[in-house]
Amino acid sequence: xxxxxxxxxxxxxxxxxxxxxxxxxxxxxxxxxxxxxxxxxxxxxxxxxxxxxxxxxxxxxxxxxxxxxxxxxxxxxxxxxxxxxxxxxxxxxxxxxxxxxxxxxxxxxxxxxxxxxxxxxxxxxxxxxxxxxxxxxxxxxxxxxxxxxxxxxxxxxxxxxxxxxxxxxxxxxxxxxxxxxxxxxxxxxxxxxxxxxxxxxxxxxxxxxxxxxxxxxxxxxxxxxxxxxxxxxxxxxxxxxxxxxxxxxxxxxxxxxxxxxxxxxxxxxxxxxxxxxxxxxxxxxxxxxxxxxxxxxxxxxxxxxxxxxxxxxxxxxxxxxxxxxxxxxxxxxxxxxxx
Length: 339
Known about the structure:
By secondary structure, the protein is an alpha+beta fold. The protein contains 10 helices and 8 strands.
């Protein structure tokens, strides 16, 4: 369908507006062909959008009609329409069930492994942050009682401490080996150099980092702010823990929930199977039989008429080929004379 439309809406069409009409004739193969186009579009959509949860997809090129189905379409048998409708409905229900089952597997995995693991990690972070916060608060600092130890020397002024920090940076010769810098508010400090930038880390249960710049006093402020973020991080972990616990309870509640449309899927699948058996049997009433078999007709010299039309099959049965012509001896004599 897109290829057909492409010949109308493609580049080079000088018309400002175009109209596309599609006609469908009742009692023909149009309904079946449109059903194939719909199935193929679903197949392409699964590949292009990745929205389908199904683990396998199949094209519809191999779909074929039986002789009985061809006859039923030509004669307008309503069972064909019912079959095609059920094919679409059953396919949709199976896709929904596949999505439901995939969701169930994911919820079960989340309830058994993911959420418990994340909850344990959050609880561990909360304990570590709480202990680090207590250590930090045991060493308060302010304008009057500021103190920091750098390379064994205690500094009570921020500018002097900043200059000492710059001097310590100049002593690093190997980027692979951090320098034990000193201590601030109960946290041991290390100085790191990655080849282009310097960084100070403060560690107790967790590690807190401050990247240095050219500002002498500003570097001391950055070290101070690294520890000031502990309460915010602690509150964030507590909120995360509450969310994880709610999600765990929700996952447990949803795990094991049956597919809500299972009864509908079973009923329509059973009806579809019944229709397939009836159509495959070859007869309108579902009984097998030879569709091309006609009652034997009596020969009466002339072909019998059924419904005002001659019976071609009876004419073929009554046909007698003409007798072969007798050989003409004069023909051979004339041929020899000509040669």
